[in-house]
Amino acid sequence: MANNGSKRSKKGVLQLLRMRTTMLILLILVIGFGAVSVRIGYLTLVQGTYLQEKAVEQQLVDTTVNSKRGTIYDAKGKVLAQSASVWKVVLAPAYLKTEEQRIYVAQNLAKILDLKYEDVYKKTKQKTYYVVLKRKIESDEREKILSLCDALNEKFDGLSNVITLFDDYRRYYPYNDLASSVIGFTGSDDQGLEGVEFKYDDYLTGTPGRIITARNANQTDMPFQYEQNVAAKDGNNITLTIDETVQSIAEKYMKKGITDNEVVNRGVCIIMNVNTGAIIAMVTVDGYDLNKPYDLSDADLAAIRALPEKKRAAAESAALGAMWRNKAVADTYYPGSVFKMCTASMALNEGVVNENSSFNCSGSVTIYDHTIHCHFHAGHGTQNLFQAIYNSCNPAFIDIGARVGADKFYKYYEAFGFSEPTGIDLPGESDDLFFNEDGSMSQTDLAVASFGQNFSITPIQMVTACSAIANGGKVLQPYVVQKITDSDGNVVKNTETTVKRQVISSAVSKKMCKFLEDNTTKGGVNNGYISGYRVGGKTGTSEKIGQSQSGYKDYIASFCGFAPADKPEVACLVFYDTPRGASYYGSQVSAPVFVNIMSEVLPYLEVQAEYDSGEKQYVDTITGSYSGLSVAKAEAAAKKDGFTVTVKGEGKKVISQMPSTATKIPVGGNVVLYTDKESEKATVNVPDMVGYSVSTVNDIAASAGLNISFSGVTTSANAVSKSQSISAGEKVSEGTVITVEFSGGTVVND
Ligand SMILES: [Zn+2]
């Protein structure tokens, strides 16, 4: 409904779409509204001539009233996309009779709406009842327009209806770039253009209302005045499976990984509930601000500006397309060694291998005239199945693939869901690229396919297959929309779990969970290990053959895993396209990001941690409140909480403490108790703590009186500190907590 306040709403709600002769007006009314046809017939016959003379002053108005688009919520009810009320300003300049009126209206409107006076003035001269001056104005501008209407009413005796405000809506995304590739955005007419906004547009849009009115230009009611209002119906609301907290955690570490590893072509993280198929987080980094979907990055803009002018438009639209692209479902890649979890699963399920099977690696294997090398050129020698997995040995997997055979291999490939889109409820899902469309493979094809090379799949297909391996063998249909409700809260649609098929037995699934868990703890690389949690997973590094640019050998670095390994709940794929930093290995680039994400996500999901004795020294505990107590009592309390204590100053009571109350630090950390103002001023220099083992960092911190919060991989024998949250040389209070991040060292078995 138009919304100028009640006194204006009757006469002011006018959108003149077209001028028509009386006959046309009557024709439309006859067709549309039979109830008045008799009266109109009378008017046409009896008063026809008179009305035709008046035709130019008459108008039929048929105005669409926008409906309010539905809200998009996260799994916990946080608003991710919302339509806020804004207004459209429409001028009916035909009502303006004098030059004084035109100038007054143009001056005021130009000022309020921040428009050029000349442009507005030009519009006031038009002989029409419907000129849109500005769309989507906010409430502060609306207030000023309403005051102007009051002023017009007084100054020019009822001229207020020269301006009309129509209800409109503006889409607003409170979290800006969060989950941008999933949520998508809307166009200027409120239509969904990308992501869920596009896929579920029909549900979100609602039904526009209508106002149909016949009036004459002098505002006196016409003899056959007819008005019909159809109220707009709000769109449905959507609740996603995406959890804002989990999504934020994943985005934080994924962005850090982009910077740390100088990733050229973005990264993807998908976190899926292995038992339902619900997607808890889906990240494409870098994303874009949903409130400004046409703003390109500075780097993109610079690249476009460097082009010849005639090429810029095409380059800009390509850059926007790439920025909006949901890489998690739309891009394909060689899965590399991550796929070995599928090869091992199918071989176990077929019974062609078991735990005791033996595989030999001399460092390379020759299939017809192709020699394929193991990443460990000296050769792994004789291995059992678990050793083949944790060595990530290509010759062993070529043997395993050959035992399965090409026909069966492809049947499992299909059954894992790689030969078709997963059917996730997002737009733009790509299909795989296999060797031959009919699934046939040469012996060489089968050999390289066994370790995940030379065929392309999407990230969503990979995490879906990993979920099947973890969940007892069920291939599920992934989804991002949990529930659709109407504006009264009634459930319109609720997504149930869809089990597509059983691909491996639950016994094989159990065995694979154990192998993949051991792979993260006992394997040569335990960068997938998370203190306190049983996690299973596999690294992968695949060369982008034939896709290299500018002399680089480009790679995909990925890690795919799940937790807890004994009773899996979530699967997570971390994937970086073209890292060009110090390493391009999945174990170095992606596994640490997986560890960081899962270390925060698992406690949030209330997955219980279980620490062994070796881990306990790194378990954080929470500081109590010791201020206000006597020194003796405070000291006793802090010691009882498991900390070592340093008392500073000459006072009898504790006036402050470092770290402050409720800070997480490792058991045995240093709590400093200050007893006077002077003692609080003392600082210590932060030492350099990068490039050391866990125990060395512990020693350095203890001798400086500082506390360490351990992050990343701390239990690997090769663990080395990579970064510290406060730089060396900074001055801080004794007891300050510094976060030091570790990675698992330099052994590579991708
Ligand atoms: Zn090998």
Fold topology:
Blueprint: H1 6-12, E1 16-18, H2 22-32, H3 37-53, E2 58-65, E3 72-73, E4 79-91, H4 99-113, H5 117-124, E5 131-137, H6 139-155, E6 163-172, H7 180-183, H8 195-199, H9 201-205, E7 209-216, E8 227-230, E9 237-240, H10 244-260, E10 267-273, E11 279-285, H11 298-305, H12 309-324, H13 327-330, H14 340-350, E12 359-361, E13 364-367, E14 370-373, E15 381-383, H15 385-391, H16 394-404, H17 406-415, H18 443-450, H19 459-470, E16 474-476, E17 481-485, E18 491-494, E19 499-502, H20 506-521, E20 536-543, E21 555-563, E22 570-577, H21 586-589, H22 591-604, H23 613-616, E23 620-622, H24 631-640, E24 644-648, E25 656-658, E26 664-666, E27 670-674, H25 677-680, E28 684-685, H26 694-704, E29 707-712, E30 720-724, E31 731-732, E32 737-743
Parallel strand pairs: 3-9, 24-27, 29-32
Antiparallel strand pairs: 1-2, 2-7, 3-4, 4-5, 4-6, 7-8, 9-17, 10-11, 10-22, 12-15, 13-14, 16-19, 17-18, 20-21, 21-22, 23-26, 25-27, 28-31, 30-32
The chain binds zinc ion (ZN).
Zinc ion binds next to loops.
